[in-house]
Design a protein that fits this description.
- It is a single chain.
- The chain is 39% helix and 32% strand.
- It is built from 1 helix and 5 strands.
- It has one domain: SH3 type barrels (Roll), CATH 2.30.30.
- The longest helix is centred in the N-terminal third of the chain and has 37 residues.
- The chain is rod-shaped, with a radius of gyration of 22 Å.
- The relative contact order is 0.14.
- The termini are far apart.
- With 94 residues, the protein is α+β, with helices and mostly antiparallel strands.
């Protein structure tokens, strides 16, 4: 390979490096933070689902699913990864 061939690939390599630092890396961090948030869910936490429903976690099941109470006596089963945000956390049991 001569210098001319390397010079032609240099802009392509720079574009890939910029895309990595501006798009790929922040997205990986966001996914990692979301997984940590979902794994820390506990009974009593008030959450918002990706569908916009606000409720309180009434049961955390083992098979990647939680039970959320939307209103008095209205409980729904939700996949853990669809939790968008935790509004208020409960204190851990002692």
């Amino acid at each position: 390979m001569d210098i001319g061939a390397i010079g032609q690939f240099l802009p392509l390599i720079l574009i890939f490096a910029i895309m990595y630092f501006l798009l790929i890396r922040p997205q990986q961090k966001k996914v990692k933070d979301h997984q940590a948030m979902v794994s820390a869910l506990r009974r009593g936490d008030q959450v918002v689902t990706q569908g916009g429903l606000i409720g309180k976690v009434s049961k955390v099941k083992d098979d990647n699913e939680i039970e959320v109470e939307l209103a008095e006596g209205v409980k729904v089963r939700v996949v853990q990864s669809t939790i968008a945000q935790i509004i208020s956390k409960t204190e851990p049991a002692k």
